[in-house]
Amino acid sequence: MLKHVSLFFFIFCSFAKLSAQTDSLVFDKKVIDCENKWVAYPLKKAEKYAFGFIYLDTQAGLTINMEGFFSIVNGVFTPEKLTKTVSHKIRLKPRSRPVMIIPEPRFKELDIPEKPEWLKFYETKSDSLKHWLAWGTYLNANNESKRALNYLEKIYAVNSSYKGLPFELSYSYNALGNFEKAIPILEKVLQSEPEDCSLYKELSFAKMHLNMLEEAENVYKKMLESCHDNKQKGEVSFNLATIYHNKHDFDKTKIWLEESKQWINKDNKLYFSLLQLENLINTQTK
Description:
Helices cover 45% and strands 15% of the residues. By secondary structure, it is of the alpha+beta class. Strands 3, 4, 5, 6, 7 and 8 form a 6-stranded antiparallel sheet that branches. Strands 1-2 form a two-stranded antiparallel ribbon. A hairpin with a 2-residue loop joins β5 and β6 (76-81). The longest helix is centred in the last third of the chain and has 17 residues, at 230-246. The chain is elongated. Mean pLDDT is 90; it is low at 1-7 and 14-23.
């Protein structure tokens, strides 16, 4: 399936600053509440609307497949369809501007089915573990961890070892400050997945924030035995340097800064933060 993100991204992100109601059409639905729905939103040009179908891509997250535009002529939705040779998709954020769910009586006017034929390539049962995990992953990635727990904890109740769940669930708990809940989940899964670097990162993060610094260091040392991702090793070691600095333990800060330098190069997003911390600690310890 084509996954081309067209210039419609710019249309979607530049909604006109219209009122919530335009010609009696009400745009008040959050996109995260519109899975498997035909929706519309207003364009800058008055009395013209874009419309498409929102679905959950288990790999890419919540997506709208644009179908075309319509205007209202004598009370009838009159469509202008897009070419079918290109897939016009937009990856949605949970806080994208609100939309209107198109009422079923309007489907005939727009010449659209209840569900598009292509949906079968993406559709999973809404109560399946795979579907719930896709939602949890999407929401975590978009800073909606509290909402992600609604899906992830349901999976945990059915199958606590479901592939991909331990990371997402522990990520949610860490993001919400529930570090005590994250730790046992991560320690258990690392017994069977010792090469998953992201699990070490989340475990060290939880222990650091519970002031279990020696244990956090041990997580890092264990990580070195199995993890081959230098970027994540850099993140964990730099996090330790940062937390020791926050506690004014400058000797430990220097030790972990030196450790970080093994993994953080100029192409790493942490490189300039490392230099700043190094300059600061050198000034503080003169």
